[in-house]
Records
---
Amino acid sequence: MAKIDLSKFKKEADRLIQTFKSPRMLTEAGNFAADRIRLRTRLGKGIGPSGAPQALKKLSPSYKLQRAGKIAFASKGTGKGRIVYPYIPDAAPKLHPQTSPNKSNLTFTGQLLDSIGINKRTQNSVTIGVSGRRTGSVLSNKDVQGFVEKERPFMGLTKPEVAGLQRFIASLFKKLSR
């Protein structure tokens, strides 16, 4: 009968697992996920109720005009007594290069999607989210996310993106085991 010593295999497996759980590997997987969320959203897709990619809700006609610089709005007062006045602006707003006045892709200035990244890292996981303050605004990116996700859910991975992340992680594991 042959004796098989698995101690070397166990040591190598333990080394692979520890390397794979390293901050560097978790960061790579987290950045991959954040990139997928940004890309999908800039292409005008969000997440449907079943986890499938779904087109983001279309922009309203008045918001398209506002993005094109043909109309703007000012308000006076607060609450129920608030009055909104339309006016013709002197210049069109500066849109992010990856959008247009008619495109629903959550990229007016680009600040929201550009802020997506790793918010929290533990020993075994990373959490992806938005962060930071917005230039020229009292709102944070988290505030804006809360507003837009009511009508246009985008934060998270779709089922195909989860499968892609699993393939990406498997490829990292194969590279490590060579």
Note: The mean pLDDT is 89.
---
Amino acid sequence: MKKNPYSPSKRRLVKIKRRISGILSGRKKSLRMNLYLGDLFNTFEGQPTLSQYYIVARIIEADLVRREIYDKSYGEFIARAARGMENSKEKTIHTMKMYRGFLEHLDEVGFNPDLGCLSVASSADGIFADDGTHRLGWLYWAGIKYVSVSLDDRAPKYPLKGREELKKGGIDETVLSELDRAFEEIRKGLHGELLVILRDSVAGEIPALLSGKGQLEKITLSNSSVNEKVRENEIPEEIWRLYYDYKDCPCHIYTLKLPENRLWLRDGKLHSVAVEEITKEIDRLTGTKSWGYIANSVTESLGLRECLSRLEHDYWE
């Protein structure tokens, strides 16, 4: 059996070193926000990260334990391949029953976002959840689409190329196929669109350019068209500023679904690598920076869409 490189004492030491490094650097290291779950399912170079495989495993297990199936743990399949950890059948059953108790407790008392804030690593490679996979499993089945997170400016704890890591560890191909299939199904259900606002005066060839980047659809906003309601006090100030910038000018509204949308924290805000590249192309095409706006994340899109939908739909063509 391989030696476990992720012992509790080593994890604590790594956390202490990260805190000290953050203090010494003097940089802002985190941002607290409510994040749409779909923004946690952007892949790295076309494959799930190891942490995303763990999230998928917990979602599968949440379904298994509710059906009183305790002798199969996908999280253990991953841990065995990635870390060399292996439990007895009795230990697996005990762990899965504990998970069911955890889920039933959350069913009864609900989820407290102030106590259950997830740590999410943010780097140029993307944003990825490092912990709270069991809580994410419950949130998914409870139909709660937002989670309170702390975005930390650091590298992720787990390897980014999850499939390669699991294959290297000798995971069963059938199990890996089941995890991949579940990941794609979950991601498809959560994969939202980015809101695009184009000023009427400069729209021109922009829709054709955007159609080459992903699925573009023109929409009409009205109160009845908004499915994801965001309370006013949960909408960040920057989104309200965008709302006031565009609420009185003739604009066209679109949604854009990108195949990949790598996010990272910069200057206290989530940025999209793909959107920044598209924005530069549009700047060159139009010769102006006042052509409109593309939301960076689905989280930002839903907040902005909620703001704009409060206007009469006659403002929008």
Note: The chain has two domains: 8-188, 194-315.
